[in-house]
């Protein structure tokens, strides 16, 4: 098998791993070394100045000795297999960099035989890149659960960011769907990476020659929809991971049925894209809005409302916290208002030192008044009055009712529900209802339901 065939197979096998993100590292070029690293973005992200930067996302091997039921690369699945040798991967990466195709590398792998062997091969590829080719760009590497701690340390000294995929939200699901993996084997390298990163930062403050260990931190990924855990369970686990292991990011991957298995959803099941979107919104509330997981969901409501974002849901459940006076409220209180984000809250605090703010000033600052006006006062005056139905209609997320256009020919276009629209919309259209009529009906039912809860 030639190198082009290997690249085609292993790049395609890596597409299901979403846990790759912007670098988080600013490292300028150095004399005698190739490349640099900019914090704003990696892997087809857009930087603040409009640049699109990319990285080579590939598996070292897809020949796996594990039989995880949800994975396309599992041992029992009949697919084409390929494996790089370390120098092949290093030369491929540096060749792409010199042609200006990429700015970094995202490297993961299936488990070849055992975790230690896999990690040794990955480490050798990265060693060649760093030491022989003097590559100074961004590298994100996946640690293999169950590998020796010494190998995890060696990998962390070569990579900018590391990650260990937790994959499934509970130990029960892990035992049922991935019997070769153990919870302790997944959490142990997470804990080691967190400890080593903290120790490295302390040493770099004291010793000039201290080497950084995974300076961009670590991340993880959870598959959503392959197992029966609720949103409350997932968000609670996410909060615990952030607190205990100092993760930079938790990624959520809507389960895409790729293999037939009685323990998994049918191949005809749609990926839960809207649910994934709600989890990302809740994750943002945990990290930047100072919410806790217990505030967002409860035993009575264990899953997010598909028609409202989590912040609007919290606001409707807690009417006693509103209205908020924008000219005197603290930053924490402002962040609880639907339509006000961290940047808007900071701008409000800065602007009100010089003047009293009204709706016109809030609009210029960037506040989304369509939602915020029902939850704020300006100098004692309520931003807006509205019936319950009007407020519910203003808070609905248009994404849940998304309708696009499918072009059948040059002069024939047909409306179609977008992939991340509410599941009920797809169900109604599958039953034969016109998509625009279904979206209007579903929106009216959502407004009625939310109005009753207010």
From TrEMBL:
Q: Which domain of life is it from?
A: Bacteria
The residues covered by the Helix-hairpin-helix DNA-binding motif class domain are 332-351
A Pfam family (short name) is HHH_3
Q: Which UniProt keywords apply?
A: Iron, Iron-sulfur, Metal-binding, S-adenosyl-L-methionine
- The transmembrane segments are none
InterPro entries assigned: Aldolase_TIM (IPR013785), DNA_rSAM_put (IPR023874), Endo/Exo/Phosphatase_dom_1 (IPR051675), Hlx-hairpin-Hlx_DNA-bd_motif (IPR003583), rSAM (IPR007197), rSAM_sf (IPR058240), RuvA_2-like (IPR010994)
Q: What is this protein called?
A: DNA modification/repair radical SAM protein
**Taxonomic lineage:** Bacteria, Bacillati, Bacillota, Clostridia, Eubacteriales
């Amino acid at each position: 098998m030639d190198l082009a065939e290997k690249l085609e197979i292993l790049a395609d096998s890596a597409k299901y791993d979403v846990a790759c993100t912007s670098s988080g590292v600013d490292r300028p070029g150095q004399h005698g070394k190739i490349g640099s690293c900019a914090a704003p973005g990696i892997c087809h992200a857009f930087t603040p100045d409009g640049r699109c930067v990319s990285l080579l996302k590939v598996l070292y091997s897809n020949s796996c000795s594990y039989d995880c039921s949800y994975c396309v690369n599992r041992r029992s699945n009949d697919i084409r297999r390929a494996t790089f040798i370390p120098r092949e991967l290093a030369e491929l990466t540096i060749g792409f960099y010199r042609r200006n195709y990429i700015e970094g590398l995202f490297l993961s792998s299936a488990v070849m035989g055992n975790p230690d062997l896999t990690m040794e091969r990955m480490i050798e590829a990265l060693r060649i890149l760093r030491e022989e080719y003097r590559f100074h760009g961004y590298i994100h590497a996946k640690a293999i659960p169950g590998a020796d701690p010494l190998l995890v340390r060696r990998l962390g000294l070569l990579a900018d960011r590391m990650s260990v995929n937790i994959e499934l939200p509970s130990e029960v699901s892990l035992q049922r769907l991935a019997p070769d993996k153990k919870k302790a084997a997944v959490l142990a390298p997470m804990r080691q990476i967190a400890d080593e990163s903290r120790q490295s930062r302390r040493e770099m403050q004291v010793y000039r020659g201290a080497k950084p260990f995974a300076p961009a931190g670590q991340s993880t990924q959870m598959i959503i929809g392959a197992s029966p855990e609720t949103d409350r369970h997932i968000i609670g686990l996410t909060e615990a991971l952030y607190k205990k292991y100092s993760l930079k990011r938790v990624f959520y991957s809507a389960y895409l049925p790729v293999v037939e298995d009685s323990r998994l959803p049918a191949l005809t099941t749609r990926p839960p894209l809207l649910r994934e979107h709600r989890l990302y919104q809740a994750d943002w509330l945990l990290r930047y809005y100072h919410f806790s997981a217990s505030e967002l969901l409860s035993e009575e409501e264990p899953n997010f409302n598909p028609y409202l974002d989590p912040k609007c849901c919290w606001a409707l459940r807690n009417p006693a916290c509103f209205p908020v006076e924008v000219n005197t409220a603290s930053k924490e209180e402002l962040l609880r208002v639907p339509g006000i984000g961290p940047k808007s809250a900071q701008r409000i605090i800065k602007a009100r030192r010089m003047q009293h703010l009204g709706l016109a000033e809030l609009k210029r600052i960037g506040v989304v008044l369509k939602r915020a006006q029902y939850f704020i006062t300006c100098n004692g005056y309520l931003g807006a009055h509205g019936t319950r139905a009007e407020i519910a209609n203003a808070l609905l997320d248009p994404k849940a009712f998304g309708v696009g256009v499918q072009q059948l020919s040059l002069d024939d276009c047909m409306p179609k529900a977008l992939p991340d629209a509410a599941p009920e919309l797809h169900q109604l259209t599958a039953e034969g209802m016109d998509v625009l009529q279904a979206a209007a009906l579903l929106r009216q039912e959502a407004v009625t339901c939310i109005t009753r809860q207010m």
